[in-house]
Amino acid sequence: MDQRVAKPYLDMMPDRVSAPTSAANQRRDSAASPSILFAQPDDPRPGESVAQPAFFADLNCDQIVHGVVAGRDEYDLVPLFRTSLHSRAAIAYRHAVMQDLEQAALHDCVATFATTLRGMRKHLDRSRTCVPFQKETVFLECIETYCAAVVTLAADLTAAAPRSQGLRNILCYLADYSQSDVFTALRAQASEIRAGLDAIGYCVLVKGDAVTVRQYAGESDYSRRIERDFLKFKQGAVTDYLVRFPATNDMNHVEAQILACVAKLYPEVFDRLTRYCLVHADYVDATIAMFDREVQFYLAYLDYIRPLRQAGLQFCYPEMSPDDAEIFNRDGFDVALAHKLVRQWTPVVCNDFSLSGAERLLVISGPNQGGKTTFARAFGQMHFLASLGCPVPGTAAKLRLFDHLFTHFEKQERVENLRGKLEDDLIRMRGILDRATGRSIIVMNEIFTSTTIRDEIFLSRKIMDRLIRLGVAGAWVTFVDELSRYGPQTVSMVSTVVADDPTLRTFRIVRQPADGLAYAMALARKHGLTRAAIMERIRP
Which residues pair with 493 in a beta bridge? Predict the structure, then answer.
């Protein structure tokens, strides 16, 4: 018998779990392939390559996504976390799935399934270095693992009784698939081949450098007889000198030759094994593979926010508001910063914001290093996370369902674009205004700082007027107090300091009128430089 290798099943296995290629799977109607990320079968799905949104770096969303997907490279989750949803129904669909997976029973059964399939893929990948016939045996083990995982998941999901439409759809699919002819045949044939392999018995005769392999003929097992005879001499604990083979896929050349000889002794069993591997080269069902990838979106995010919750920080499921309705957040915070602070055992300061009626823009002012930029980032982060269908920081939230999220943060001058800083600020701002609509979100941080205060006020008022006419909602960090009093569309937010020591920041951002003089007067009082204090010292 020639030593054939079932090569195609390894070549056809996808490197990522998102791309099964089974012809049988491809013939399945898309409506029969439920997604737990997308409510409708025809909803647009992100491709393999999705460019990082322009606002990511400014809002530190790149740090958040990096932390969420860490250790899950094989699932290619980054495109999913770069693609916002634009309908309340689509976001509500994900909210329901995420809320289901926050329940311990559902989370555990899905996480166990994902871990099992991940181990299966690693086992299969390690088999690439295996010798002929050992590869096929490993492949059989992977199919057995897959079948058992599918059956277990179906049973566990049934017992956990999910409430979300997404997981209920998957449960219905699993019920049908696990009873289908394709799956039952895959499982039954694997059991039959396993029984055939388990029934194989052979003897290895070693004489000098010659190794002979022949069929087992009922000879006595002398090792067991010796163990039994010497057992009566055992007194207390003794040293175990038995040699144990390492649990790896590696075989040396002698073991490989022995396996080849065993295959020749039992050609029917090994022929059937080889044919089975060839026929079922792409045994993972497309919808199961898709679920295995998509559920990582939820598990990864829940794992990411778990240490923050354990530190006492709250997350909530926001209501998504149309462009003309109230938006607010209670006890929100910058998620990327919070991860760093929690690791350092440093308290995280939470803040609130709200916009209602004609109000559209938060204008944030106050002393340097008081948390203004962090507050603005948190405002943008919350809207980004909400657009993914994820819970957001805070105890309660109602956020805008945006079409575009824009940011304008200070950038260093770049020699290659041959533009000065002010010109670059203006060009970037023009690009934003050309694309912004009444459903857009904008976060700006201290723009036009490279020019004079008079020009900064003039340009800022022009920008403010355009934003208000567009109906854009957002947050603007600025030292120009006048912007906070621009009209009913603006809300003044001020970073506060400790009353008795204005050099200390509270990092609390409160809703109050902006007055740069208040901070200056606090410093003057602290250092005895008020007019009254000075006059007292120079009085004759």
Answer: 364, 511
